[in-house]
Design a protein that fits this description.
This protein has about 100 residues and is an all-alpha fold. The chain folds into 2 domains: about 60 residues, no CATH class; about 30 residues, no CATH class. The chain has 6 helices and no strands. Helix 2 packs across helix 4. The longest helix has 12 residues.
């Protein structure tokens, strides 16, 4: 019975072409607070992950929505001032606006 359910779920998932739609489906939480991945683990349905669209969903979840390939210096204010090649942060216009806010 479990194999029939597993095969049918895999066939249904293969209908989708957009990984964003499938991501929204698998991230939904039921009334007990459990998502699709919890059920995959609980009932040992890992073969569903072998479908082509689920590979793309997992890849998208692995990489995340935001690119965080940055160094600690990219978040430093002093470093931003040092690398301000257009002088945007040290212009007189900026200081005039700050005087009016005080």
């Amino acid at each position: 019975m479990l194999e029939i359910i597993r095969d049918q779920v895999r066939d249904i998932i293969d209908i989708y072409n957009d990984p964003d739609i499938v991501t929204a489906l698998v991230e939904q939480i039921d009334y007990e607070g459990k998502d699709c991945f919890w059920y995959l683990d609980e009932y040992n349905l890992y073969s569903i992950l072998d479908s082509r669209i689920m590979e793309r969903v997992i890849e998208n979840k692995w990489h995340g929505k935001n690119d965080i390939n940055a160094s600690i210096l990219d978040y430093s204010t002093a470093y931003k001032l040092y690398k301000d090649k257009f002088g945007l942060l040290t212009s007189d216009r900026l200081f005039k606006e700050l005087l009016f806010e005080v």
